[in-house]
Amino acid sequence: MRCLSKRDSRGRRAAGRRRRQRARHPVDSRSPVHRTRAAANISTCTDADLIPNEEDVARVRTATLCLINRERVDDGEAPLALDAQLEQAAQGHSDEMVAAGYFEHVGPHGDRPVDRMRAAGYLNGSEVGYEVAEDIAWGTLWLATPRSIVAAWMASPGHRANILDPGFRSTGVGVSPHAPVSLADGQAGATYTQDFGAIFTR
Q1: Is 6 helix (H, G, I), strand (E, B) or coil?
Q2: The pLDDT value given to residue 181
Q3: What is the pLDDT of residue 7?
């Protein structure tokens, strides 16, 4: 299994500058009751042990988001909301990595995560600022399940920082039920992309 993370931001305080992965730790003002209810709703993530195939990709995406949100709630953060445009960008990147046989954040034509999110309509130029990030992973056999992928991301400081970042509000998960051919040695597997975002408006 292999994972990579990427972060990009254009914030009101640091316009145009790229920021390295680092978690922020603001004081959490949300009530314990809210966090407890959210945790109860995602305490059991159905399909977390599915090995992706063509028929169950939607279920695998749902299980992956459930596991991610469980990690956030356990850390005292609000769950991420599913965003259709981020999901479109993430799914397109997973599919392209498999089709073109590569595993990187930058595509063969130079497209970066922020470019894919813009092409999907998540960033449309009307925002004052934004912060986005992307985690990718691939695995074979049992290492391709949502549980294994999320566990690997949580064991990696950069990926964990993206997942638990309190500034992110929205996400999209893309899953291809294949691993990049050049990397998987002929084994069945899957390729995952998770895109994160926060948009700042006036």
Answers
A1: strand
A2: 85
A3: 54
Phi, psi for 82 (deg, rounded to 5): -70, 130
Residue 74 CA to chain centroid, in angstroms?
17
Q: What is the pTM of this model?
A: 0.81
Query: Residue 52, Cβ neighbours under 10 Å: how many?
Result: 28
Residues of the chain with pLDDT under 50: 9-42
Characterize the bridge pairing of strands 170-176 and 81-82. parallel
Cα–Cα separations (whole angstroms), residue 91 to 46, 63, 94: 21, 15, 5
φ and ψ at residue 171, rounded to 5 degrees: -155, 165
Read off the tokens for 46.
């159905």
Looking at residue 49, what DSSP letter applies? T
User: Can you tell me the distance from the alpha carbon of 15 to that of 12, in angstroms, rounded to the nearest whole number?
Assistant: 6
β-sheet with 129-140: strand ranges across: 2-10, 129-140, 189-200, 170-176, 81-82
